Amino acid sequence: MKITENIKMLEIPEPKGDFYRPTLTWDDEHLVLFDTGIPGMGALIAEEIKKAGFKPEDLTDIIITHQDIDHIGGALELLKLAPDAKVYGYEVDAPFIEGTETPTKLALMQGKLDSGEIDETDSFYQMLKTGFAKSHLPVDVKLKDGEVLDFCGGIETVFTPGHTPGHATFYLQKSKIMVCGDAANIVDGKLVGSNPAMTWDNEKAEASLEKIKSFDLAGVICYHTGFLEFK
Ligand SMILES: [Zn+2]
What predicted TM-score, i.e. pTM, was given to this entire model? Predict the structure, then answer.
């Protein structure tokens, strides 16, 4: 779905029958991708990049909103196609993306395993364990709150913890579009926060939703629930 002249929300079919929505934005010198799906999804995203009129090898920047497997999983596959692309992540989530810390959701499931609430055969646990084992990647640029990347009309980092400890959303300054990752969702045409069932800290997530709403917004892109335009 084309959002503006230089923003496209990709729609990649996911296992549960819905879509993941990595976002593509560009200018004369940069082709930027926000989030990369689960492991194995790199080729599908590469196809969508071609449909948008680019070559996957033209990717210059991959920005990760947060550490979860459905956001980092296709990054290494895309980096094989575009080895010079720079990877960005918020400084708090970077160690989880790089694998120097156990990812938040995997740690949660390991806790359930230790307490006997689940056993080794639990499918979500297995998916996270095997998925992360092959998905960790170096984060070249560790972002801070308020930092602005000086391309594609200005990309402002907005620290929005809650869904994970280091979740960030990205404000595309020229178009006033917020790339929300999982910090916000659209339910019945309204902007709501992170899905509570998948949230690390609900109180922080609620504050983050208010922070997102405080921006001058033309629209929001939510990774799991789509695009909402504000008139
Ligand atoms: Zn997600």
Answer: 0.97
